[in-house]
Amino acid sequence: MNVSQVEFQNMKEVIVKDMISRLMEERGLSMQDAFDKVYNSRLFEKLSDPKTGLYFQSSGYVYSYLLDELSLDVGCGFTVTCCWLNRNVLINTHVDLYKYRFIL
Q: Which of 16, 31, 45, 59 has the most CB atoms around its CB within 10 Å?
């Protein structure tokens, strides 16, 4: 579905506003810190690219990816999230967000 540049910007701004509000409410961040986290994230780069289609997703869905990105940044551009799951090791690559998730 094609949208105009104005519609794209409006949809993106709604998602960004919601993510900033949730970071402040749920994580206790100041407004400045919440703005910094969102606008400096790799996710924001993807959200700013209409080709990804993220602007069509719900704010909650996009916010969950932001939380994943912020969960544990170990440098070198990788984000690692660990969970126990039947003692099996699964590796799931999220190429679109340039990160790896390790589930133990």
A: 16
The candidate with the shortest Cα–Cα distance to 63, out of 91, 41, 33, is 41
> For 74-90, how does the pLDDT look when each residue is reduced to its tens digit (9 = 90+)?
444 444 444 433 333 33
What local confidence, expressed as pLDDT, does residue 6 receive?
95
Residue 104 has pLDDT above 90, yes or no: no
Number of independent structural domains in the chain: 1
Q: Residue 95: beta bridge partners?
A: none
Contact partners, residue 32, CB within 8 Å, separation at least 6: none
Tokens linked to 80: 């690692």
Which domain does 50 fall in, by range? 5-103
Show the CA angle centred on residue 46, arms to residues 43 and 48, nearest 5°: 110
